[in-house]
Amino acid sequence: MSRGRPRTAGADEAILTAVRELLTAHGFAGFSVDDVATRAGVGRQSVYRRWPTKAALVVAAMSAIAAGAPPGTGTLAGDLRALVQRTRAAYAGAQRSALLDLHAAMAGDPAARAAFEEQFVAPRRAALAALLSEHDSPADPAVLHDLLAGPFLHRLLTTDTDPDDALVGAVTAALIGAAS
Amino acid sequence: MSRGRPRTAGADEAILTAVRELLTAHGFAGFSVDDVATRAGVGRQSVYRRWPTKAALVVAAMSAIAAGAPPGTGTLAGDLRALVQRTRAAYAGAQRSALLDLHAAMAGDPAARAAFEEQFVAPRRAALAALLSEHDSPADPAVLHDLLAGPFLHRLLTTDTDPDDALVGAVTAALIGAAS
Amino acid sequence: MSRGRPRTAGADEAILTAVRELLTAHGFAGFSVDDVATRAGVGRQSVYRRWPTKAALVVAAMSAIAAGAPPGTGTLAGDLRALVQRTRAAYAGAQRSALLDLHAAMAGDPAARAAFEEQFVAPRRAALAALLSEHDSPADPAVLHDLLAGPFLHRLLTTDTDPDDALVGAVTAALIGAAS
Amino acid sequence: MSRGRPRTAGADEAILTAVRELLTAHGFAGFSVDDVATRAGVGRQSVYRRWPTKAALVVAAMSAIAAGAPPGTGTLAGDLRALVQRTRAAYAGAQRSALLDLHAAMAGDPAARAAFEEQFVAPRRAALAALLSEHDSPADPAVLHDLLAGPFLHRLLTTDTDPDDALVGAVTAALIGAAS
DNA sequence: GTATAATCGAGACGGTACGTCGGGTCTTTCG
DNA sequence: CGAAAGACCCGACGTACCGTCTCGATTATAC
C-alpha cells in the first residue's frame, strides 16, 4: 500500500515532550517552533508535517495530560469527591501556566479549539457521564463538568494561585448537591 | 501646570471602541495594534502612549464591560439569583469570544493579569463581599466568586456555546448552598 | 558484473525532456527537481542517481542542443557565414531563456561550469578550430569563438530579444575580418 | 505631503556595500538577505522595504558599477579603443564573479531584468550612441554595444578567465570596422 | 509674541517568529 | 540491485507584528 520512508519512530513523542517542557519553562509565547524542533532533535519541517500550526501543536501536547482512569469508590459521593481531588490537581502546580497558555494558543484558532474539545474536554465529560449513569443519576454531565472544573479554572485565570481547601469543599458540596 | 498640547478628546474612547469591535470580529490574535490605530483614526504611537502593551490595551477595553450595580432584592437568595443572571449575560452573546481572548491576552503577561484582576475581577468580588456581609453570611467571597463565574467561564472556553438554563439552575443552587 | 534491476530504458531521456520543457516554460529558478521527476514520471532519487545536482542536470539537458555538424561550403568566408547563421539560431527563439538560465545555473557551481565547458563550449570551439586549420587561418579559435557567440549572448542577456539582421551582418564582418 | 520618520541616511549605501562585499566574497548563492542586513547593521525589513527581492537588491548593488565617464580622445577610433579598454576592465578581475552572479540573480525575475537593463545596460549604450553621433557614424549603437561587450562576457561565462590581449585586439578591430 | 513642551499622524527602525519552499540524503517496500 | 514514495535535516525566503524612534506639524500653556 503506502510506500515511502516511514515517519521516524518516537519523533512525535519527542516533539510533544519538548513542547511540554518548553511550555512549562517559558510559556506559550516564550518559545518558537524552531526551539521545539531543536530540542526534539528534529527538523522544523518534521514538526509542521505533523501539526499545521503552533497552536495545534500545543493542543496536541496538552491533550496527553487529559487522560483519566475511573475513580472507583463504592458510592457516588465518594467517586465525586475523588474526581474533585483529581481535578484540583490538574489545575494546580506546574500544570497551571501550561493550561493557561493552552487557552492562549487556541484563541482565534477554531481548529485548535475543536481539537482541544475533542481530545481534552470530551474524555473528561465522558468519564463523568459514565459515573453518573453507573449510579443512576439523572444529572446532566455537561453541567456537572462545568460545575466541577469551572471554579478551579476561574481561580487559575483570575488569581494565578493554587486552589485552597475552602474552594475544594465548596465544589464538592455543589457537585454532590447537583448530582441529586 | 501641565504644558504642551493636550491629548485629543475622545481619542481614548475611540481606541477602546475600535479594540472592542476588532476583538468581537476577529479575536485577539486577529488584529494588530496598527489595525486598532487605523480604525480609530489615530496614530499608532497615540495608542502606545496610553497603554504600554496590546494586552493592557485589551484589558482596558474589556474592563468597561465589568461595570456592575448591586442587585437589591430583599433576600440573600434573591440577590444571588439576580447575580447569577447578570453573570450569565456577561459570559454570553457577543462578549463571549472577546472575554476568551482577553484571558488569552494575559497569559504570560503578569502586568496585564494584574490590571485585569484590579479592574475586572475585584469589583465583582467586592460586590459579592458587600452582599454577603449585608446578609451576615460567613461564606468566603472569593470562593463564591469562583463558584459563580467559573462554570460559565468553563462552558465558554470549552464549548463556545451560550450557557443554558440547566447550568444557570445548577449554579444558582450551588451558590445558595455555599452561602449557607 | 552488475546485477539487480537495470535502469529503466528511456528514463534518462524522459528526464532531460522534462527539464527542457520546464526550462523553457518557467526558467531555471521556476521549477524544482521534484517537478522534473513528477513530469518525467520518475522518482526524485532516479534523477539524483543520474546527475548530482540541479545545475548538472540542466547542463546535461542543454548540451544536447549544442550538437553541430561542420558547415562545408567551399570558402572560409562561406563557412563562417554559415556558422554565424547557425549560432544565431542557437541564441534565438525558444532556446533563449533556457540558455540564459543555464548560465545562471552555473554561477557558483564550478563542477557544472566544467561540464558545460566540456559538453557545450568545447565542441563548438573544436569545430571552429577545424575550420580555421582547414583553411590555413592563423587566427585564435578561442578569440573567434568569443567574437562569434559573444554578441548574440550579450543581446540575449541584456535585451531578451532575438538578434536582428544588423547584428548578424556585423558579426559576420567581424569574424571574416578576424580570420584574416 | 508624506511625513513620518525619514529613512536612515546612508542605510541604502550601507546595504549595497554589504551586498557587494558578500557578492565578491561568497557569490550570489553564498549569502542570505539576513547576512546583508546584519553586515549593514540594519534590520532585515529595512532591506525589503527598499528592494522587493534578493535579485533586485543585487541588481541595485551592481548597477553602481556601471557608471562611465566619456572617453574624450580626438578621433572615433581612439575613443573606441579607450572604450574597449574600459569594458575589458569591467569584465575582468574582482568584478567577474559578481557580474556572473548578477546574471544568476536575474534569471526568472523579469522585474530585475528590467532594472538591470535600465540601470546597467542603458547608460553604456547611451554613451556609445553619443560617441557615434558626435563623429557622424551611421552605425547602430545597439549592435556596436553587443560587439563591444559580448565577446568579453562570453569569455567570462564560458572560461572564467580574464580577457587576453588577442581578444582585446580582435574586439577593437571589429568595432572600428563596424563603425565605418 | 515668543519660547517651551507635549501631542498628533505617519512611517521607518531592529528584532523575532511565522509558515513555506527547495536542495540533496536516507529509508522504506515492491519488482 | 533499481525504482517510486516520501520522510528527513538544513537553511533561506518573504511577511507580519511588536514596541520604539524620529520626523514635521499642531496646539496648548508660560513667560
Automatic annotation (TrEMBL), chains A, B, C, D:
PANTHER family, sorted: HTH-TYPE TRANSCRIPTIONAL REGULATOR RUTR, TETR-FAMILY TRANSCRIPTIONAL REGULATOR
Protein name in the entry: TetR family transcriptional regulator
Segments of the chain annotated as binding DNA: 32-51
Gene3D superfamilies registered for this protein in UniProt: Homeodomain-like, Tetracycline Repressor, domain 2
Domain HTH tetR-type: 9-69
Provenance organism: Nocardioides flavescens
Pfam family, one: TetR_N
GO molecular function annotations of the record: DNA-binding transcription factor activity; transcription cis-regulatory region binding
Keywords for the protein's UniProt record, in alphabetical order: DNA-binding, Transcription, Transcription regulation
Source taxon at top rank: Bacteria
InterPro entries membership: Homeodomain-like_sf, HTH-type_TetR-like_transc_reg, HTH_TetR, Tet_transcr_reg_TetR-rel_C_sf, TetR_C
